[in-house]
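Lab notebook, bench 4. The sequencing result for the construct came back, and we need a structural model before the next group meeting so we can plan mutations. Quick request posted to the team channel:

Model the 3D structure of this chain.
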Amino acid sequence: MKKHYNSILSLLQKCKTMAELKRLHGLMITTSVIRDVIPLSRLVDFCANSESGNLSYANSVFERIDRPSLYIWNSMIKGYSNSQSPDEALNMYSEMRQKGYAPDHFTFPFVLKACSLVNGYNSGQCVHNCIVKTGFEVDAYAATALLQMYAASGDMHAALKVFDDIPKWNVVSWTSLISGYISNDLPSEAVTVYKDMELWSVVPNEITMVNVLVACARSRDIDTGKWVHDRIRQMGLDPFSLNLNFNVILATAIVDMYAKCGRLRTARNLFNKMPQRNLVAWNSIIGAYNQYGQANEALGLFSDMRAAGFEPDKATFLSLIGACAHLGALVPGQALHAYVSKVNLTKDTAIGTALLDMYAKSGDAERAQQVFTELQKKDLTTWTSLIIGLAMHGHGEKALTSFRKMQEETMLIPDEITYIGVLSACSHVGKVEDGKNHFISMKSVHGIEPTTQHYGCMVDLLSRAGRLREAERLVEKMPVEPNTAIWSALLNGCKIYQNVDVADRVRRQVRELEVDGSGVYVLLSNIYAGACRWEEVKMARQLMKERRIQKCLGHSSVEMKMLAP
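Done. Here's the predicted structure in token form:
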């Protein structure tokens, strides 16, 4: 055995494939080297944890070992925690404990990772108890893994307590806490932790900076984001200043931060400087142009992305479909729908909802309903998009029927956006009492405080129905200041029913509050013109001139579907 020991050990270190490994395994058996714990450990470790390994083969070897070493147990637990069956890591840990093995500081991080992946909060707490009992709570490696488990389970209070109990904070523990706040949608807290880290003179690494930039992007904190970028430059890590070792992940995080904070010119300039790009970078810049109303630019970038050889993913499609919805561009929207169908994403709820919204905003309510019907899983956003889409196209009855169906057939609870669609539908079909009941139940049943948009829908509903005094009283009682849309809705009712008295009172309010928006003044002018009150017409136009308010020109768009000859 000794004669073959060193050569087999050397071959195990050089092993690259499972085919080579299996030949070595056979050689180890025939030469009895298999009985030695070191080569046996390396054999199991290669199968369980190398990129070209085979976890099933590792398990078959493991089951034939009479007394596995702790290293071998850890290799198997690690392998399962990184696999598609992380629950097996927990089963193996439990078996290890039952057989009398004491875990060490390498065991706990792998087990805790498995707890995070299977939402095993209770199992994680049991592991925490074991860490305390065995004295490993002071071990930075085990404590950081525990922090990550609590953060992944959504318990940031426990994660922070674990962090506070770590005797010496290192860059990994700080970065884990920052990452935990981000994953729990607390980006501002993540930024605060980073600032504390700097005060403690702990030097961040590139992973830290990526996380902080993500936090700045999500909280739209451009000032801190620029400060972080300057800090990256000071540390000599700025990927846009380095000719070698370009860090595409850090570069993408910088671009994304500027893009999400609305600094599109800076983001685009940096994006153009990237010597290499990944799909995340493309999605970031496309998504930002869509988010900030530059839909044509987003669609143009998609063409560049495809020319660069990148295939779109779900995030790409959501941005592009949103861009088509913003433009009301039916033809490119239909092309994207065909593309989505080709890559089998039409069953995805988010994609389906985006398509529904796009068809509704592009004027094809029938196709929007068809997309809704074909979706197997519908969430609140899907139902809300259908209700709003039907309401905006004058199908108020269908919109209200859909709302009732949602309440009767699902466990979904409507939110404030759903109620905007419902109240708008009531307005379109003149269902005043239904609208009032929905407005009341919105707060009394679901605890939703009405916003300016809800009040606007109610004022529009009452004004269209000719109940102008009631609409006026509602405006007077509003806890928020009326906006241009509310005054316009009330004046629209005045115009329909030729009620100059209410228009007079609105005019006084508009004058005192210095309301912006040409629509209010144009309506006032038209109402007075209809009543032949030319002095008031002149006054309304003079107000516009004094406040330098330009009349908004109406416009229409016609989409030409080009046919090949």
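The first helix runs from residue 2 to 14.
Will bring this to the meeting.
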